[in-house]
Amino acid sequence: MQEYTLADAYEVSARDYATAGDASAAIKRKLKQLGVDSAVLRRIAVSSYEAELNMIIHSLGGTLSMTMTPSEIRLLSADIGPGIPDIEQALQEGFSTAGEEARNLGFGAGMGLPNMKRNADEFNIQSEVGKGTQIRMLFHL
Amino acid sequence: MTITEVIKILDARVLCGNDALTQEVSTACGSDLMSDVLAFVKGKTVLITGLTNIHVIRTAGMLDIHCIVFARGKVPGDDVLREADEIGIVALTTRHTTFTTCGLLYTAGIRGNNDRAQPD
């Protein structure tokens, strides 16, 4: 079994725009201290921030977790609902169900999921309406 | 060019980050849509925006954007500038509109971020 060098989890609350970005900033800070290459770090930071924002904008709350081994970093965004009815549609650039509050802040343009997919070396999303959404992303070091 | 030259071109005022004005800038992005900034910006870039909320700073922080120009004379609140200062972002304000700000920098040789946020 592979030995993890770092594992962290951050709670993300629904509609809590005031703290949006705190979890991703903490993850970025830690990985920077550990000397992760800046180009990889930026991809991780962007993906993490998009996932965190998505949970704040759309979900009922969830957890953003990061695990790091010497060879890879994994991000897991897991929320408690409401779930995505049509994942294919949600993955299309420009499709968004975000409300006015998110849009007024400069978000909710339907770029989040495609941007995570583009930045991660591996991207997987699973969702069940009424249960929740899990997004798994892997970044090679 | 350096941020000092950007200040001169835009007749801008420094809001925070006075000690980091010798940093180089070569590209810029003009947008009020942070979703687009997150999807298209890479590397050391100047962000030109009319938005002044805290999420502009946090978005810039995620992308290592080291200079933000607030157009049309806008000045964010103290809490926003404090966070910018803490993470080492130079914040400027210029009386020019976003369009004119972009045009002035383009004329001076600054180019856009044509690539998406992909690895270098």
- Write down the Rg of chain B: 13 Å
Q: Portion of residues in helices of chain A?
A: 25-40%
Counting helices, strands and paired strands, the structural category of chain B is: alpha/beta
| Structural class category of chain A | alpha+beta
Total domain modules of chain A? 1
Biggest sheet of chain A, open or closed, and with what strands and sense?
5 strands, antiparallel
Strand arrangement within the widest β-sheet of chain B reads: 1-5-4-3-2-6
CATH hierarchy, class of chain B:
Alpha Beta
Spatial gap, N to C terminus of chain A? 19 Å
SSE arrangement:
The complex is a heterodimer of chains A (141) and B (120).
Chain A: E1 6-12, H1 22-33, H2 38-58, E2 62-68, E3 72-79, H3 87-90, H4 100-104, H5 112-119, E4 122-128, E5 132-140
Antiparallel strand pairs in A: 1-2, 2-3, 3-5, 4-5
Chain B: H1 3-10, E1 13-16, E2 27-30, H2 34-40, E3 45-49, H3 54-63, E4 67-70, H4 78-86, E5 90-93, H5 98-107, E6 111-112
Helix pairs in contact in B: 3-4
Explained architecture:
The complex is a heterodimer of chains A (141) and B (120). Chain A is built from 5 helices and 5 strands. Chain A is α+β, with helices and mostly antiparallel strands. Chain A has one domain: Heat Shock Protein 90. Chain A has a 5-stranded antiparallel beta sheet with strand order 1-2-3-5-4, covered by helices on one side. In chain A, helix 1 packs antiparallel against helix 2. The mean pLDDT of chain A is 94. Chain B has a 6-stranded mixed beta sheet, with helices on both faces. In chain B, helix 3 runs parallel beside helix 4. Chain B contains 5 helices and 6 strands. By secondary structure, chain B is α/β, with parallel strands linked by helices. Helix content of chain B is 37%, strand content 19%. In chain B, strand 3, helix 3 and strand 4 form a beta-alpha-beta unit. Chains A and B meet through helix 1, helix 2 and helix 5 of A and helix 2 and helix 3 of B.
